[in-house]
Predict the structure.
Amino acid sequence: MGLLTPSAVRKQIKSGATDAIYLLQGEDEVEKSGLAHEFEELVEEGLRAFNVDRIHAGDLTTGDRLAVGVASLVAAVRTPPMMSPRRVVLVLRADSLLVPRRESDAAARALDELESLLQRPEPQTTLVFVAGTLDRRSRMFKLLTKQGTLVECGVIEDQAAAERWIRNRVVAAGLEIQPAAARLLADRAGTDVTRLRNDVERLLLYAFGQKAITLDDARQIAGPASLQDDWAMTNAIEAGDGAVALRQLALMIDAGAPPEKILGQLGWLVRTKFPMLMPGALRGAVEALFRTDLDLKRSAGDPRVLLERLVVELCAGKRPGYRRV
């Protein structure tokens, strides 16, 4: 039926006008779990015990178990809602159900029964499958996207989604976070999932032992606004522009990039670019990399200063004592 973002699905849930079948897929387990839980809001809280079913499909590893699991699913979907206009059925870890690992006659019959269910959904039931990233060539994926709605989880659409992403992860870790703190992190990281994940991990470490994360906590770990170009530093070094390279290095460090990651990026630059661009400077650059790596490992100086020295040497195409040939 189409592809929707998590935000669009939340609007459907809030309005009560949901589709019959959903497939929540992607590698973001927290987002999928949180969104699946929100479908329960379609049923009044006091009636959820009668109208919300959660089926765990992860142990459906044989044809016989698959047949039993599909039969239970069909029964849950076809059961009329009790004292409620809608019923919700959540199928968690649905990969084993939708794409069985082993083929057998029992598995084939179970899939046929599941196909019949998908082709004739129950109007009063919202059926939600939660899975990883399925093979788009599989018959079940094709049928689900034809009969239902695909929701890709793990893509941050806007700042509101980034704030929700942050709150979900903090709550999953057993803490609370002030709205202003989540807003600050989202404002600094934008929609960069990697940056968001790193900032939240650092924040959780910083707030270890606390029950709640405050705005002051977020200020302590939040770097400046996210970089526009992750490779701006290496591009500046290629151009021999030391001032720009140092400015971009400072932005990366202030944003929380680990020194080891920055050194790895510089190592890639030397290995892949210097042999063509600056062959005469290659030996000195390699020696400078090894020296900086050793100094970082033995804490022989402030990491920022060590990396700044390395960037200056790479931009100059030489190191102390190096003689260009």
Observations:
- The chain is about 55% helix and 10% strand.
- The chain has three domains: 2-152, 159-221, 232-316.
- Strands lie at 2-4, 21-25, 52-56, 87-92, 125-130, 149-152, 176-177, 212-213.
- The chain has a mean pLDDT of 86.
